[in-house]
Amino acid sequence: MCFDKLISKFFWISAATLFGACNGNNSAQSQMTGTDLSLKDAYESFFPIGVSVSGSELVQEGALIKTQFNSITPVNAMKMVNIHPEEHIYNWKEADSIVAFAKRNEMKIRGHTLLWHRQLPDWLFRNPDGTRAPRQLVMQRLKDHITTVVSRYKKQVYAWDVVNEAISDNPNEFYRSDPLFQVCGEEYLDSAFAWAHTADPEAVLFYNDYNEYKPLKRARIIRLITTLRNRGIPVHAAGLQAHWSIYEPSALDLEQTLEDFRSAGIPIQITELDVSIFPKDPRSAAAVQADTSRAFTAEKQKLQSAQYEQVFRLLRKYRQNITGVTFWNITDRRTWLDNFPVHGRKDYPLLFDSNMKPKPAFRKVCRFDD
Ligand code: XIL
Hints:
The protein is of the alpha/beta class. Helices cover 42% and strands 14% of the residues. The protein has helices at 3-19, 27-33, 39-42, 55-60, 62-68, 80-83, 93-104, 135-152, 179-184, 187-199, 215-230, 251-263, 285-290, 298-317, 360-366, and strands spanning 49-53, 71-74, 108-116, 159-164, 204-209, 237-240, 243-245, 268-276, 322-327. It has an 8-stranded parallel β-barrel, surrounded by 4 helices. Strand 7 (243-245), helix 12 (251-263) and strand 8 form a beta-alpha-beta unit. The protein is globular, with a radius of gyration of 21 Å. The two termini are 36 Å apart. The model is unreliable at 1-26 (pLDDT under 50). (3S,4R)-3-hydroxy-2-oxopiperidin-4-yl beta-D-xylopyranoside is lined by residues 75-76, 113, 164, 241, 272, 336.
């Protein structure tokens, strides 16, 4: 080894000792991502770290994805409107390419999502002549869909979000009053999990939803999963989407959330993590103040780092009950929050900036002493 290399090796060993155990190797990785740290390495002994991706992002952002994450989820490719656009037509192309990428790079694959009230194809609820399809036909179509999709990725997709967002945020109704519920009634949940389990008995089956840090929604989700399980329905875990912000949840609310799932005996994954710079709850005083500016100011950057640090400290603390953490989108260059809930309002919710470089929050997540 030449002298230069020895010196540089010494430097990296010293730096690794200084900064703790989570530094990855320095060479190709640091050139590609601008960091010698890696999320998947830092959390190797805790849980897999995942990210949602589209097929085209695997080409443009493949290097970053490979060095930082060890699990992926198709962001849209497995949703019913995309993978099953017509009754007798399945479109496997994008989902297959994501699965192949994951296999090539030894990454886990989470399937998302078999049933959701959004991104459903119109044909599902229609007869060929355009009139409304009867319940029995819709149920048969759901069965065919779940059986076909889960079977195709059997032993490849290790976990499925089987049902997404079935519970209402409205205090006056338990189930969201969406077309699936209106046409099929609550039994579609039982059936969906049972069909998925039959198609791949080894897959880990999730009920996935958001706003668990709010007590009413959390209690309802825990009640639903417990009731289904008591009836013998194979619901193995809860997915907490975790579309959070720099203002919420508080450490107290998040810890209570993690504690409640743990004590109910329901393992969880964080399935769609992002930390918006805009408040989720427009009624809070902080929200009103913060909403006056759309800029990602130094102050917001600081709040975001602190929020990410706090979130991961608690996730590490509850590691026994957490089997994975997945980010929703890769970098601030493109996030679904640019168009939700306000169309065209740029957001900056992730750990990598628009140039794919790590943000201060990234270091807070990677470097820890506990
Ligand atoms: C979002 C995608 O990121 C967008 O590209 C798409 O236009 C809409 O869906 N909860 C979910 C995810 O379960 O599937 C959603 O993903 C975000 C909210």
